[in-house]
Amino acid sequence: MVQHTLTPGDLGDLRVEPVTSGIAMDNYAISMNVSWRLRADASIRFLKATKICVTGRSSARSYSCVRCNYTEAFQTQTPRTGGRWTFSYTGFPVEPNTVYFIGAHNIPNANMNEDPPSMSVNFTSPGCLSRIMKYKKKCVEAGSLWDPNITACKKNGTAVEVNFTTSPLGNKYMALIQNNIVIGFSNVLENTPPSRASVVIPVTGESEGAAVQLTPYFHTCGNDCIRRKGTVVLCPPEGVSFPWDSRRGMLGGWLPLLSALLVATWVLAAGICLMWRRERTRKAPFPTTTLLPPIKVLVVYPCEICFHHTVCHFTEFLQNHCRSEVILEEWQKKKIAEMGPVQWLTTQKKAVDKVIFLLSNDVSPRCDGTCGRSDGSPHENSQDLFPLAFNLFCSDLRSQTPLHKYMVVYFREADTKDEYSALSVCPKYHLMKDAPAFCTELLRVKQQVSAGKRLTACSL
Predict the structure, then answer these.
(1) In this predicted structure, what is the pLDDT of residue 457?
(2) pLDDT category of residue 4 using cuts at 50, 70 and 90
(3) Given a cut of 70, is residue 405 above it in pLDDT?
(4) In the 3-class helix/strand/coil scheme, how is the chain assigned residue by residue?
(5) Which of 94, 140, 195, 351 is 20 to 30 A from residue 411's alpha carbon, by CA?
(6) What CATH number is associated with residue 373?
(7) Residue 1 in domain
């Protein structure tokens, strides 16, 4: 076991909450978002990673771990923006009705015979009938979206009538009457779901106020389906229907009138809106000119390109001549460390108007001395995000994302390198030769690009 002179302390805080992803049932998933806060002490300088382990206990037991590495050493106990260093990880799947034990500790681990720095919390996931779980595929198959609308009434001292709406998931049910003990039950077989089923159940005791339990046997969940409950009341007099049936009849009578009223209201609102716009246009003699906001641009470039002589000069050109707000990974190292490179690139891709791939097939000799190209320099040790950005953005283009968001810029005449050949379908500009056309393209109104012009290969 490796002996460390100094090791980091424990976490300042650890929290867990469920988050959802996807909309359709096939890709709807619930994951665990684990967030943690670091302590503001000197031991943070020795922190390299945080390990999170999750143990789940239900009908089956699960165990998984993940190690979250920090991209660079911490130089300060707190971020320059204030607060505490806070990070999060989302990825552990969450199943319904499961107790999870989440433990986390910092790396390097404590030395032998020292107290291990760790923190743990418990999290119990909700059941299938909860708002967040009921759309999960496993819960839907167990009947979470099924509303049986149970009504049960005491017909006389020896019988209870139970009515409910069947489900298309199955046709076999069991209705059971309980009043401290089981006083009656009956199996129901309905061959035309969904429909309103009715069954009269003989009982052996007082049934008013008793509980009704309806157990479905769907082909998707077998004997482990969600059971529904109701309460037995006195049957209404002859000729009087249950509230559910009367509401349904009332709604059927009012529905055409409500539809006509809704259409009339919509037509009236549209007419008032058109008249107001026409009056406003007539009274306004001169249009108002509004200065458009700057274009947000993310510039990505390979590590072999000189930052000071190429990237910085290109950034000045964008700011001074193309009215652009430029985002560079070199300027957001701390933000990347907090969010992670993939999350940072994904966030920037959504926020910016253009993504520019800055390429050059020639590296200037003066970069070696002036720009810190020597071994061990900060630029040499920094993470090269270009391959990650290249593959991430190409993957989006391959899934029908419009090409108008992407541009390629060269400072010298050259064909696209083989490893960047996937960029050949993007608009390319040679600076400073194509500077006017480049600025015009950068500032012009976004137009729909032909769906047939897509990236066909995206890999480095």
Answers:
(1) 36
(2) low
(3) yes
(4) CCCCCCCCCCEEEEEEEEEEECCCCCCCEEEEEEEEEECCCHHHHHCCEEEEEEEEECCCEEEEEEEEECCCCCCCCCCCCCCCCEEEEEEEECCCCCEEEEEEEEECCCCCCCCCCEEEEEEECCCCCCCCCCCCHHHHHCCCCCCCCCEEEEEECCEEEEEEECCCCCCEEEEEEEECEEEEEEEEECCCCCCEEEEEEECCCCCCCCEEEEEECCCCCCCCCCCEEEEEEECCCCCCCCHHHHHHHHHHHHHHHHHHHHHHHHHHHHHHHHHHHHHHHHHCCCCCCCCCCCEEEEEECCCCCCHHHHHHHHHHHHHHHCCEEEECHHHCHHHHHHHCHHHHHHHHHHHCCEEEEEECCCCCCCHHHHCCCCCCCHHHHCCCCHHHHHHHHHHHHHCCCCHHHEEEEECCCCCCCHHHHHHHHCCEEECCCCHHHHHHHHHCCCCCCCCCCCCCCCCC
(5) 351
(6) 3.40.50.11530
(7) no
